[in-house]
Amino acid sequence: MSDPRPIGVFDSGVGGLTVLAEIRDRLPYEHTIYFGDTARVPYGVRDLAEVRWFAYEIIRYLVSLNVKLVVIACNTATAAALMTAQRSFDVPIIGVIEPGARAAVLETRNRRVGVLATPATVESGAYAKAISYLDAGIEVYEQAAPEFVPLIERGITSGPELEAAARRYLAPLQERGADVVILGCTHYPLISETINRILGPRVRLISSAGQTALEVGRVLSRRGYLRRPRHAEDLGSSVYVCTADPEEFAALGSRFLDQKIEAVLPASLDPSPRSDAPLLY
Amino acid sequence: MSDPRPIGVFDSGVGGLTVLAEIRDRLPYEHTIYFGDTARVPYGVRDLAEVRWFAYEIIRYLVSLNVKLVVIACNTATAAALMTAQRSFDVPIIGVIEPGARAAVLETRNRRVGVLATPATVESGAYAKAISYLDAGIEVYEQAAPEFVPLIERGITSGPELEAAARRYLAPLQERGADVVILGCTHYPLISETINRILGPRVRLISSAGQTALEVGRVLSRRGYLRRPRHAEDLGSSVYVCTADPEEFAALGSRFLDQKIEAVLPASLDPSPRSDAPLLY
Asked: What is its EC number (chains A, B) (predicted)?
């Protein structure tokens, strides 16, 4: 049995492309649709109800394209909208927080886990909640790293400026003896080399992006939703959609995907009034 | 690296031996200690604070025997005591509810999950909570099956009496169209054949016991805690401890383990007053 429907992946911008890259790497036969809401990026500064509505609009759009699974490849949108979205749609929906939290719980030996994330994600406490749900005895240290996203989007993924910021953010996690650190933002895989070097070989780094891709594979395989082409060369295709300038998306996005993005389609979301949403609590 | 410390498994009685059987089956090199609190069985009729205290006492006993991981192989004790226990001890502690809930979430296609459990477990709502935490859009139907445990303990694991009870309990789950059913009690693997036959091939049956054993394997392997003997014949050994009559435990337990239990040790828990417990909320 083969299920050729695409996987839908969305984010406020290009960060979620690191999740898409991991999905394509692990599930090369799957078709994918990536949706970047670049007209409204970033989500971190908006209120929760607004982010929930954006997520609802985007998932409705992806569902109209017959996706078999949706990945909310954005920490802010996962914290704000995952549960509401799961209640509102029939398609399975996966966020980026639980898979990373779960991997950290499985791997920590001293039960001290560090989380690097944006200020909005840290403020939501979503990782601490998810980890504590799985093992209430684990101490979680969340560290906001406000400079990382701007640096990475300017193309600075190594060098002294990044190094200095990384040392500053990691010091508190090191002081507390965390033996596992979660990269709790989809931008961070681009700087994992620097972070890994500073933390050293005794601390394990967990990428939410990689763990989310593994979870996508588990769900598809256990439900019998994998695409199984007849020929091994028949790899899955990817479609890119964004709400602002497609060329800008392609230029910035290619670095996050670690591969050239050829064509990006402009998205036109149905401009329904907010009152249309069946479930917005 | 090899970690020869034993895994501790406990239950109010013999039911948890189905979890032990799965652990031994999947992790044959691990040493295990099974603790059956047969003097105080069943836990389902006691209040939560009391069950928490029993769990605390037993885990303290197992920790004094240098276990590397504890499995609460009892649904009632997991619902009552897991989080408190995780906060109170350094050793990782795994319950039987989350692994089964997680497997159900991964496997359901129509997002309707049935749960068969004892009245106490159904009343706790623990499976519904665990499933909803992973996918808030899944509908969970919990069915109390009060007759199963008494029948199984009387040795009735097939035949018309069991069949009639099973059909009665399963009918509501079938009517609601659940495509996955969780065996939410450690006794139930002994009657899975009958349940499977009634549900038919289109409904997947998930054994909490089996999923918990898989989770034990994941934690040990990801933390580097597996025992790796030098010779393939050097299998793990098992020790059985109970708080009431050892011979009775051996006779009844052998059916749950599906293997003869040779020796059972009487346990002597430190009779400390309840006020000694550091964390009993």
From this structure: 5.1.1.3
